[in-house]
Every structure is written in C-alpha cells, then in structure tokens.
Amino acid sequence: MYGRKVKLRFLFVLLVLITLILTVYLILKSLEENVVYFQSPSEIKILPKIEEKKIRVGGMVKKNSIFLESKEIKFIITDYKNEINVVYSGVVPNLFAEEKGVVAEGHLKDRNYFIATKILAKHDENYMPPEVKAALEEK
Fold first, then answer.
1. Torsion on CA atoms 121, 123, 126, 131, rounded to nearest 10
2. How many Å apart are CA 69 and CA 89, to the nearest integer?
3. Residue 82 CB neighbours (<10 A)
4. Which of 28, 66, 79, 95 has the most CB atoms in a 10 Å sphere around its CB?
5. Is 0.90 topped by the overall pTM?
6. 120 Cβ partners below 8 Å, 6+ apart?
7. What confidence tens digit (pLDDT) does each residue in 29-75 have?
8. Which residues are CB-neighbours of 100 under 8 A, at least 6 positions away?
9. What residues pair up with 88 in beta bridges, in sequence order?
10. Interior CA angle at 31 toward 29 and 35, to 5°?
11. If you write DSSP's letter for every residue of the chain in order, what string do you get?
12. How far is C-alpha 39 from the geometric centre of its chain's CA atoms?
C-alpha cells in the first residue's frame, strides 16, 4: 500500500520522536534530583514528616545566637515567628552576621535542628533574598 520511501520516512520520524522523548525524560529526571526547596522555619514546623532531602532554610540570624566552637558555628535562623537551630562546619561568608538575612542549605535532623552544608549570604546589607522577604512578609 505505501511505498518503500514512505515507510523509511515514517521509521525515521518515529526514531527521532522516540529519541527526543527519551532525551527530555532523562533531562527532567536529572534535574529532579538536583532541585533544592526553600522553606522558612515556620514552614518546617508544620511539615507532616521530615525527609532526607536537601533543603534551604532562610530567614534572619537571631541576635546574640552565634556561637563559635573549634570547627563549627552554631546559630539560630528566625522568621520572627519560629526559630530553627543551625550547625555549620566551614567558612562563613564575610557578610554573615547577626540580624542579617541568611539562607542555609543542608539537611533537617528534626524540626528544631538543621545541619548546614552551605551558607549563602553573598549580598550587601540592604539586599534580602526574595524567598526570605516573601516568607517574612507572610508572617
């Protein structure tokens, strides 16, 4: 019914389509593993369960909450409604200070304790990350 050329074109288009669908699927799957969600301390308090996924916690560093120990720094992130204790081992950015905006990336141990692997505070004193600003305005 169909000629040889039509069958070859159909097969070629089908292979290109399958390749395209597979490529898009693999790209989306790899991006899914690298997504890091932002949450405020108040959002963490109402989580139904604590997962082992990497998240970002943002807010303000509570006044008089920074404690330096030998190889780690402990501080409290607040959104002025709830607080979460953070432990971080490593070098903090120069702009990290009390009563300044901060975003910590890492894992939750429980609803009150966060183990940070990265501290993001690379901004001037007037800038606040949009996620932190929205979370604070919400409260």
1. -60
2. 10
3. 18
4. 79
5. no
6. 56, 93, 102, 103, 104, 105, 129
7. 888 777 777 888 888 888 888 777 888 898 889 999 999 988 899 99
8. 60, 61, 121, 125
9. 73, 116
10. 125
11. ---HHHHHHHHHHHHHHHHHHHHHHHHHHHHHHT--EEE-HHHHHT-SS--SS-EEEEEEEPTT--EE-SS-EEEEEE-SS-EEEEEE-SPPPTT--TTSEEEEEEEEEETTEEEEEEEE--S-TT---HHHHHHHHH-
12. 8
For the domain 37-138, what is the CATH superfamily, name and number? Answer: Nucleic acid-binding proteins (2.40.50.140)
For 30, the token pair is 């790899």
Amino acid type, 62:
K
Q: Where are the domains of the chain?
A: 1-35, 37-138
